[in-house]
Amino acid sequence: MNLAIETRGLRRTFGEVVAVDGLDLEVEVGTFFGFLGPNGAGKSTTIKMLTGLLGPSDGTARILGHDVVREAVQAKRRMGVVPEETALFERLTGPEYLRFVGRMYGMSREVIDARSAELLDLMGLEGDTAKLIVDYSHGMRKKLSISAAVIHEPRVLFLDEPFEGIDAVSSQLVRSVLNQLVASGVTVFLTSHILEIVEKLCTHVAIIHEGRLVAAGPLESLRGGGEREPGAATQTLEQLFLSMVGGGRLERGRLSWLEERSLG
Amino acid sequence: MRVRALIWLRSRMWWHGLRSRSTAADTAVGFILTLLAALVSISLASVLSLITVVGLSDDSREPLRIALTIVCWMVGFLAVVVPVVFGLGQTSLPLRRLLVFPISRGGLYRISLAASFASGVHIFWYPVLGAIVIAAVTLADAPVLPWFTVAAVFALCMVIWCHAVQQLVQRMLQKRRVRELAALLGLVVVVIASMLPAMYQERAEQLGKEWFGELVPRPVTFIAGRAASVFPPSLAARAFESFVDGDPGPGVGSLGWLVLWAGVGLVVGGSVVRLTLLEGDVTGGPRSAAKPSNEHRQRPRGFDRLTVLPPEVQVVASKELRYLLRSTVGKFNLVIMPVFVIIMTLIVARDLEHSFLGLDRTSLVFVGLMIYASMFSNNFLFNAYAWEAAGVQSYFLSPVEPARIVLGKNVGVWFYNAILGLEAIAAFCLISGPLPVTALAGGCLAFVAAVLLATIVGNFLSPAMPVPRDISSITNSPSQTAVLASFGVLIINALVIGGCIAVPSVLGFGWLGPLVLIVLIVIEIAVYSVILQAAGRFLASRRESLIEALQA
Fold it and tell me: Which of A53, B147, B156, B489 is at a distance of 20 to 30 A from B265, taking alpha carbons?
């Protein structure tokens, strides 16, 4: 099996709090992988460990066979990242930032200029090339961040909530680009709270809850699996997700003072 | 209820702020800086109280009038000008945080104004005014109730107007570009104005005149005096004075004018807040889109041509230089450097008639200036990641050895320093004419040695003590511990680098100074090269706290 991402016993603690607890994950090359979990489950911490922004407390993580701690530079050379909080230098213009990223990955100026022009055009940022990033809206920043993550042709792409704050047209564009990337053999590792998008895009999903992996595998088998009656319709990703992590909270989903008012 | 909620909020924020200062070094430095602020406040209070008491003790009323005018205008300066200029119009309680709550616009204004009474910028001068009045009533028998009343109304008036002017300035400076430009121009004007008395004295001496009035035309002083007399500090001074005279009529009249000023201040402040809120500019919503300009179309590519450096070092250096040139402090340094050199050369050269430490006047002044000029960029080296904010993650996501990131950032600052150094040399030559070769070499080498020393210290200090800063702001102070480090570097600069020039000169081998400095620079380069990898590893080890601190 050709693995793009592989973690073994990955663990991260912050003082007493265990954010990720012994994560064993395998993602095959060319997979569109959805990494799901409720707020505070450990998704962003996992992505940060995989991309080298956080060091693991224990365990190992490999990107295309390269250990993210010991072979950090080789691992990073093969990945692109869209962090949850856009990591942009705000006093550069969009093209300047793309040139910065391209040069950091050792690309030639000609290739950078050609690709950045195409990316800016695709993302609808071509009219704002003279504007500093500090003057960009949230959606524009997100689109630039996505452009920066793909400009160097990464083999593994990490996206932490990429659709947050971007409009429907841009969202469709990004989805189209991501599908094209996966078709060309790129592995996409995506976290999103918008389960409909994950369901449409991803071929494989994993669900993390309280730092532990509670489900992982091909989306279809997860949706059709579980304790279901033979012949019953497959459950949606939302149903699957809620059954895995919803717990007793769903049953308590009413506010007492509103109930009192409606009774009165 | 709302007021209690806000008081609770402020007190919790204050308490958590105290708790977050965890390191012993920061606590110690914070204590020292608080002590310094208290010392300045006590000194001001003592001097102004003394002036007032001396004025009151004199039988003639003229000294009292002058003393009270000085005191009240000084208090007015501290209460309005200092908070507005140095705080860029920022109020202690930003209204945008409260817009989500069901509070009327008038309510928002009142809450903001009430909060400003308890803000740190005013707490600094309240004791000064209080001490003056207490000294006057206890030591010089000034009437107690009238003086305390005038002081209270004057303080009220000052805080109301400070708040109104802050709101007005904030409204004017909502556009980022206007804000940066205003900060830059404002500080240049303040620095030049603060140096004018020395310049003026120089000019007066050249003209053989000794007093201000002889150089400034009388109509100008007359009109300025008349105009100033209607402002609150002059009104307060007149009120204080008239109650001492036992003739309360004019005092009550001045007090009435002060109350009127306060009322007008309330109307102005309230109107500005209402207008601003109506236009929705303080909601923190989408930023005002800057009009496309050609400003950034021209691509500075200087480093891209430096093929001796690896591409990733070039691009980090290029980014660093862009940041420096686009920051308000970076632009300010470039503007102020020649002004600073010219003014300091005129002032220092005037008082320095003879050679000192074996150095002739020109060499001594030039070397001293160049060492001082090197410190203009110390903040960029001691708190090197201050402006990166979330962008700092880009470094750690890139497939680049951290040592190369450190080197790239250093190269960017060195290039900026080279511009500053060239400016200083050009400005100095403009005043003193062509420099002797030994003086030029000594000054330039001292500059390089000082910058290298700061770079070595800064490469470890920056990741260790990161403090986020607003790139648009003119204040760019580093962390408190870095303040102490810069004192240390200043001492080393003076002792070691200055000594490399001065000791050979004292021994009669002035030509040896530059050679000793070259040896020092070679040693520094060797040390820098050896510890660059260590600095890179230290940066990588600090990445989590760095990202956390800068994103906060």
Answer: B147
- Region of B212 please: left (phi>0), alpha (psi -120 to 50) or beta: alpha
**Dist. CA B333–CA B339, nearest whole Å:** 10
**Low-confidence stretches of chain B (pLDDT beneath 70):** 1-3, 9-10, 13-27, 29-30, 33, 85-97, 99-101, 173-176, 179, 183-184, 187, 190-228, 277-307, 347-359, 473-484, 552
**CB contact B90 to A (< 8 Å):** no
**Are A131 and B547 inside 8 Å of each other by CB?**
no
Q: How far is CA A115 from the centre of its chain?
A: 23
**Among A165, A157, A114, which Cα is nearest to A139's?**
A165
Q: What percent of chain B has pLDDT over 90?
A: 21
Confidence (pLDDT) at B240 = 87
Which bin fits A40, alpha (ψ -120 to 50), beta or left (φ > 0)? Answer: left
Instruction: Please judge whether A106 and B311 are an interchain contact, meaning their C-beta atoms are less than 8 angstroms apart.
Output: yes
A41-78 pLDDT, tens per residue? 899 999 999 998 899 999 999 999 999 999 989 999 99
Chain A residues touching B303 at Cβ < 8 A: none
DSSP letter, residue B80: I
Q: How many helices (H) and strands (E) does chain B have?
A: 24, 0
Shortest CB distance from A76 goes to which of B315, B392, B399? B399
Say yes or no: ipTM exceeds 0.90: no
Residue B172 corresponds to which tokens in the numbers above?
Answer: 């004017």
Cβ proximity of B443 and B367 under 8 Å: yes
- Which DSSP state fits A255? -
Residue type, A193: H
Tokens of B523: 């040693």
What Rg, from alpha-carbon coordinates, does chain B have?
27
Q: Where are the alpha helices (DSSP H) in A123-263?
A: 138-150, 168-183, 195-201, 219-224, 237-245, 256-263
| Helices (H), ranges, B383-479 | 392-397, 402-432, 437-464
Q: What is the chain B residue with the closest CA to A128? A: B292
**Beta-carbon pairs below 8 A across chains A and B:** 107
- Which is it for the CA torsion B205, B206, B212, B214, positive or negative? positive
Provide the token pair at B300: 């500075």
pLDDT of residue B281: 45
Kindly give the pairing relationship between strand A3-14 and strand A58-63: antiparallel
- Reference B480, options B32, B5, B10; nearest CA is B32
Report d(CA A70, CA B251) in Å as an integer. Answer: 79
- Rg over alpha carbons for chain A, rounded to the nearest Å, is 20
